[in-house]
Amino acid sequence: MEVPMSRKVQDVISKRKEVYSISNQVTVAEAARYLKDRAIRATGVTNLSGRIIGVVSQSDISDKVVAENYRPSEVKVQDISSTNLIKVAPEVDVETAMQIMSDNGVYHLVVEDAEGDYRGLISIRDLIAVEAEEEKERAELYKGYAFPSY
User: Model's pTM, two decimal places?
Assistant: First the structure.
């Protein structure tokens, strides 16, 4: 039986069909609709040149706009997006990415390749799902050792 290999961030994001991002010029109402329509909780925010400059999440919208009684149709995403980006390369292993999130108290990391191109976001939820899958594989491996089939 083969020991499960540690997965990389690339393994998680490569399964996606689309890299999500929105312009920093859209309104919070448009951003909320974008997130809802795609069933995602956060997305990258780009400047007019298409470079990633922030992340906006459902929490940003609820905490910084709705809870403060601002009108989502009158607030720009650039005014509420998180701009202190924590970035990882696709080659980083899942365990390291989880540790980076824990150390920094964040739920999303920006994934950029060596050329600085935005490859998407990875969330704590994504990483926990990978960890759970690895634990299941590990349990099956141990089960095979403990209860061999002859």
Answer: 0.82
